[in-house]
Amino acid sequence: MENLLENIGKRCTKKPIPENPKKIRSPKPFKSGFKTNTIKGVIDHPVLHIPAYTFEEDESYVECRRVRVI
C-alpha cells in the first residue's frame, strides 16, 4: 500500500485488459473523457475490496492494477 501512496500527484493512463491476446484494444478513456488523469488518492474499491485510485479530474475510481503511472 505504501508504494501506491507514492503515486499520488502523478499522471496515469489505463492499461488494456487482454481479453484475447491476439487482439489488444486501446483502453477506454477515464470518466472525464481524458486518456490521462492525475492520481488524487487511494481508496478501498467499494465492490472488489482492493486498492483503487481516485482522480483529480473527475470523481471516478479505478482499481490500481488497471492503471499505469507515466
Key words describing this protein structure:
mainly beta; 6% helix; 5 strands; 70 residues
Total helical elements: 1
Structural class label? mainly beta
- Tell me the Rg in angstroms: 12 Å
Strand content range = 25-35%
Distance between the amino and carboxyl termini: 19 Å
Spell out the helices and strands N to C.
Answer: HEEEEE
Amount of helix: under 10%
On the 0 to 100 scale, the average pLDDT is: 90
- Biggest sheet descriptor: 5 strands, antiparallel
Largest beta sheet: strand ordering: 4-3-2-1-5
Uncertain residue segments: none
Principal-axes shape call = globular
Per DSSP E runs of 2 or more residues, the count of β-strands stands at 5
Task: Characterise the protein shown here.
The mean pLDDT is 90. The protein is mainly beta and 70 residues long. The protein has one helix spanning 2-5; strands spanning 11-14, 37-44, 51-55, 61-63, 67-69. The chain is built from one helix and five strands; from the N terminus they run H-E-E-E-E-E. The chain is 6% helix and 33% strand. The longest helix is centred in the N-terminal third of the chain and has 4 residues, at 2-5.
Compact summary:
This protein has one helix at 2-5; strands spanning 11-14, 37-44, 51-55, 61-63, 67-69.
Give the helix/strand layout.
Layout: H1 2-5, E1 11-14, E2 37-44, E3 51-55, E4 61-63, E5 67-69
Antiparallel strand pairs: 1-2, 1-5, 2-3, 3-4
